[in-house]
Design a protein that fits this description.
The protein is an alpha/beta fold. The chain has two domains: 305 residues, 3-Layer(aba) Sandwich (Aminopeptidase); 136 residues, Aminopeptidase i, Domain 2. The protein has a nine-stranded mixed beta sheet, with helices on both faces. Strands 8-7-11-5-6-10-9 form a seven-stranded antiparallel beta sheet, with helices on one face. It starts with a helix and ends in a 5-residue tail after the last helix.
C-alpha cells in the first residue's frame, strides 16, 4: 500500500531529507552571498547599483544599440537607476523565444513627502507617505535609515545615505506609552497608527543665535545643507526612503533561517541574478528582469507595465531581424515572487492542502490575485506541466502554493503583465514569514532552491 501511495499521491518533501552534505554546503555558501546582497540593497536604487557592480565582475557590459549582437554576449540596461534588465544571448534565434525570470526590487517602506521638514514643540520631523502594503503599527519605535537622491536644478544629483554605517545616527517614529494609550488600544490595528502620525524624528536641538521660531528645524536644515549642499526647496525633486536599520542576520538556534528587511522580493531578485551571472553559452537567450513599483501596481517608467522591457527586447530582436511579437509568443517566463509561508501561530488564514511551508523548496503558484482570481495570470496546465518538468529534471526541490484561503485576502505579482504580452508565465518563488513587515523571515534551503530553479529555467532548451 505504501508503494502505491508513493507512486500516486502528491506529497511535499522536506529539503533537508533530500539533499546531501555537498548540497548543504552549497546552500550555506549561496545564502552568505544572498545575505550580503540583502544588506547592501535596501532600496531599489541600491539594489540596481549592487547588481550592476556584481554583473560587471561576471563580464556583463552596458547594452550598446550600435554594437553587433552575437551568441554569448552578456548585456545589461539600467532604467532610471531603479529597474535593471540583463541578458545572456543564446545560440538559437530570438524568434524561438527567450527564457525570462522577472522579480521586483521595491519593498514596502516610508517615503518622505515633497515638503517633509517641520518643527513641532521644538522637535524636528520629516513627514512621510507610506509606500506599498505596510501594517503601520509595525513601523513605529524601530530604527530607520534614510536613502535616496536629490535632483538639483543645476542638473546635479546628490545621493543621500544616513543610518547604514555604524557611526551614523538612526531615525525613529514614536508611539504612545501604554500608560496613556487606553483609547489607542481600543482601535483596530489598521487605525491605531494613523498614516499622518508616521513622522520621523530628525532632531531636538535649537540652532543658537537665531532668535525665536523653528530653530530646531533650521538646525537640521543647516546640517543637511553642510553635508549635501541642499536647501528645503530641493526636497521637491527628491526621492528619499526610510527603511529599517536592522542588520541581516541568521535566525533560529540552528541558524536555518534568514531575517532581514526587503526579502519580498529581493530573495527572488538575487536568485535570478546569481543564476544569470553563472549562465554560460545558453541555447535560448536568458533574460533577467528586476522591476520597480510592483508594490504599487507595477506602474511608471520603471514598472513592469511600462514599455522599458519591450524596448530592451525590441532592440535585441532588431539586431537579428526578428519581430518582437514572434519572440514573445515563443518565450517562457517565471514571475519570481515570494509567497506566504504557513505560520502555525496563525493557521486559520491558510488552507493546509494548498499552502507553502518553510524548508520545502521553491513554491509554484498557478494563480495569485484576490477573490475569484482577480488580477491573476492563472497559468495554463501546459505551462504548469513544463515548469514541473524543468524543476524535477534539475533536482530542484519544489512545492505547490496558494496565497491563503479563498476570500481571506490575496495579492498579485508581475505575472499578469507578462501574460498580457503573450508570454507563457507562471509564478514561482520563496516562501516568507511575516511578509511586508520590517523584518521578514525565510528558510535558507528555500532561498537556495529558488536560485536553483532560476538557473534551471535559464538552461531550458525549449518551451515545448
Amino acid at each position: 500500500m505504501s508503494e502505491l501511495k508513493d507512486r500516486l499521491f502528491y506529497k511535499k518533501k522536506h529539503v533537508h531529507d533530500t539533499v546531501d552534505e555537498a548540497e548543504r554546503e552549497a546552500s550555506e555558501l549561496y545564502c552568505r552571498k544572498y545575505m550580503y546582497f540583502l544588506q547592501k540593497a535596501k532600496t531599489e536604487r541600491l539594489a540596481v547599483a549592487e547588481a550592476i557592480r556584481l554583473a560587471e565582475g561576471f563580464g556583463f557590459h552596458a547594452f550598446d544599440r550600435s554594437a553587433p549582437l552575437k551568441a554569448g554576449d552578456k548585456l545589461y540596461r539600467s532604467v532610471e537607476g531603479k529597474m535593471l534588465l540583463l541578458a545572456v544571448v543564446g545560440t538559437d534565434s530570438l524568434e524561438k523565444g527567450v527564457n525570462l525570470c522577472a522579480a521586483h526590487i521595491d519593498s514596502p517602506r516610508l517615503d518622505l513627502k515633497q515638503v517633509p521638514l517641520y518643527e513641532d514643540h521644538e522637535i524636528a520631523y520629516f513627514k512621510t507617505h507610506y509606500y506599498g502594503g505596510i501594517r503601520k503599527y509595525q513601523w513605529v519605535t524601530i530604527p530607520l535609515e534614510l536613502h535616496g537622491v536629490v535632483a538639483l536644478t543645476s542638473g546635479e544629483t546628490v545621493t543621500v545615505n544616513i543610518g547604514a554605517d555604524p557611526g551614523d545616527p538612526i531615525f525613529y517614529v514614536s508611539d504612545l506609552l501604554p500608560h496613556l494609550a487606553a483609547k489607542q488600544s481600543e482601535q483596530p490595528l489598521a487605525k491605531a497608527i494613523p498614516a499622518e502620525k508616521l513622522n520621523i524624528i530628525m532632531g531636538s536641538l535649537p540652532l543658537q543665535g537665531e532668535g525665536e521660531g523653528e530653530r530646531v528645524k533650521l538646525g537640521v536644515m543647516k546640517l543637511l545643507n553642510e553635508k549635501y549642499g541642499i536647501t528645503e526647496e530641493d526636497f521637491l525633486s527628491a526621492e528619499i526612503e526610510a527603511v529599517p536599520a536592522f542588520p541581516v542576520r541568521e535566525a533560529g538556534l540552528d541558524r536555518s533561517l534568514i531575517a532581514g528587511y526587503g526579502q519580498d522580493d529581493r530573495v527572488c531578485a538575487f536568485a535570478e541574478l546569481q543564476a544569470i551571472y553563472e549562465t554560460r553559452d545558453p541555447v535560448r537567450t536568458a533574460v533577467c528582469i528586476l522591476a520597480d513599483k510592483e508594490e504599487i501596481g507595477s506602474v511608471g517608467v520603471t514598472g513592469m507595465v511600462s514599455q522599458a522591457f519591450e524596448t530592451f527586447m525590441d532592440d535585441l530582436c532588431a539586431k537579428q531581424g526578428v519581430k518582437l511579437a514572434h519572440c514573445f509568443e515563443n518565450s517562457l517566463c517565471v514571475s519570481a515572487d515570494v509567497t506566504a509561508a504557513f505560520d502555525p501561530t496563525w493557521p486559520e488564514v491558510s488552507e493546509l492542502r494548498n499552502t507553502s511551508r518553510l524548508n520545502y523548496g521553491v513554491a509554484i503558484a498557478k494563480y495569485t490575485g484576490r477573490g475569484g482570481k482577480s488580477g491573476s495570470n492563472d497559468a495554463s496546465a501546459e505551462t504548469m506541466g513544463l515548469i514541473r518538468r524543468i524543476f524535477s529534471e534539475n533536482s530542484v526541490a519544489w512545492q505547490y502554493a496558494e496565497l491563503g484561503r479563498v476570500d481571506e485576502g490575496g495579492g498579485g505579482t508581475v505575472a499578469c503583465y507578462m501574460g498580457n504580452r503573450n508570454i507563457a508565465t507562471v509564478d514561482a518563488g520563496t516562501p516568507v514569514l511575516a511578509m511586508h513587515s520590517p523584518y521578514e523571515l525565510t528558510a535558507k534551503y528555500d532561498c537556495y532552491m529558488t536560485y536553483k530553479a532560476m538557473k534551471a529555467v535559464y538552461a531550458c532548451r525549449t518551451k515545448a
